[in-house]
Amino acid sequence: MSQLGLLPRRAWASLLSQLLRPPCASCTGTVRCRSQVAEPVLTSQLKPHQEKPNFIIKTPKGTRDLSPQQVLVREKILDLVVSCFKRHGAKGLDTPAFELKEILTEKYGEDSGLIYDLKDQGGELLSLRYDLTVPFARYLAMHKVKKMKRYQVGKVWRRESPAIVQGRYREFCQCDFDIAGQFDPMIPDAECLKIICEILNGLQLGDFHIKVSDRRIMDGMFAVCGVPESKFRAIGSSIDKLDKMSWKEVRHEMVAKKGLAPEVADRIGEYVQCHGGVSLVEQMFQDPRLTQSKQALEGLGDLKLLFEYLTSFGIAEKVSFDLSLARGLDYYTGVIYEAVLLQTPAQARDEPLNVGSVAAGGRYDGLVGMFDPKGHKVPCVGLSIGVERIFYIVEQRMKTSGEKVRTTETQVFVATPQKNFLLERMKLITELWDAGIKAEMLCKNNPKLLTQLHYCENMGIPLVVIIGEQELKEGIIKLRSVASREEVAIKRENLVVEIQKRLSES
């Protein structure tokens, strides 16, 4: 530094002039390249009318927006479902949209590849939840809850090729009901099936039936037929496709793709094509091959008891024992079930809507123990309502019937035929809001009366209150019925009471 201070003033001036000189042709290639790149970027940033990037505005594959009409329809479906859950004593629960990846790993069998993994954020490996059951089991273990009857409504995500025409999405809503705790056999299971029947009857989707089986029966059947234990879940996953594929196709998958011996597949075929009521359960008790399995006998015994309870609940005719039912998820340990529509409310001229099962569930006694450090188990059984599929059916029915949906719950509209009455409208609508009445007005200073009345008719608002100079002078309000177009004069102080009376009568 001391040597720099000894430079003459002329030397300092010469050095500064070189540093401040603009680049010339003799500059290095690197500097030239940087200046050429920087200039266009800066220019593009300054152009106010530059063309926007060419991309398609759309929702991601397997997702969708819901219009106000669709939101209202969905809310009505959810209200019916949740009210049924509450009627059976369930408490509400909510869990995060994503979990630690290790919480979800190895809980779904072959479907584990459909889990959405998230990038490392804050040192934790996370995944979007695949269903609401595993997070519920984690909650029970984490909070050491031994008994709980709960419901939950929330979105889940699955990384699969969506079949939109069948109401299947990558992001969709689930409605779950579960009973956790040690209870006498088959009582909670029977209640879950009763709830499914109540909900499907309430939604009036058409006739339906519920297929029931038991994982112990399926595993016992595999064992006596000669399936290696290591292939139980893989073969079960193939069997679970019998509602979408023929037995010939399923057999081919088990033999050609999963390495099962042809004669073993044929023995399985003798069972999985059987379905019936409690009489089939009795028949399986006499099967010389199946009765060699202790766990199959336990499952058959529980199913026989289940049908007794279903008879008491008055729903036994809706339930059938179906040996083709497998339910591919790994965590099921006992009774499993699936509700399928026999027909939909489509018009006769339309093709039937094929949407698959609309509710499903089963017993998973070992799942909570996977998360407990000491392996303490909490027996659980539950169900999930297929909201998206039900929503799809209801949508199609409304399109066919031409039914219109009112998107707001506004009860009263505040209108005026005159100018400069905005403040009076504000005072009047405040009275209605404060009284708990659902009311609205046009956000304009001087709207035309005809415009206001047309809005009420288009939105299906039942009542209109009209205030003008004459009404203000006489201390009255005109109350108009939108449907009949009849008007009556009411004293200002009696308006709220009169509106509440009319709304209670409608």
Automatic annotation (TrEMBL):
GO cellular component, one term: mitochondrion
SUPFAM superfamilies linked: Class II aaRS ABD-related, Class II aaRS and biotin synthetases
Documented EC number(s): 6.1.1.21
Gene3D superfamilies with a match to the protein in the record: Anticodon-binding domain, Bira Bifunctional Protein, Domain 2
Keyword tags: Aminoacyl-tRNA synthetase, ATP-binding, Ligase, Nucleotide-binding, Protein biosynthesis
PROSITE patterns: AA_TRNA_LIGASE_II
GO-annotated molecular function: ATP binding; histidine-tRNA ligase activity; identical protein binding; RNA binding
Membrane-spanning ranges: none
Sequence positions that bind L-histidine: 131-133, 158, 174, 178, 327, 331-332
Signal peptide stretch: none
GO-annotated biological processes: histidyl-tRNA aminoacylation
InterPro entries in UniProt: aa-tRNA-synth_II, aa-tRNA-synth_II/BPL/LPL, Anticodon-bd, Anticodon-bd_dom_sf, His-tRNA-ligase, HisRS-like_core, HisRS/HisZ, HisRS_anticodon
Substrates-to-products reaction catalysed: tRNA(His) + L-histidine + ATP = L-histidyl-tRNA(His) + AMP + diphosphate + H(+)
Domain annotation Aminoacyl-transfer RNA synthetases class-II family profile: ranges: 62-417
Record family assignment: Belongs to the class-II aminoacyl-tRNA synthetase family.
PANTHER family (UniProt xref): HISTIDINE--TRNA LIGASE, MITOCHONDRIAL, HISTIDYL-TRNA SYNTHETASE
NCBIfam families, alphabetized: hisS (TIGR00442)
Protein name: histidine--tRNA ligase
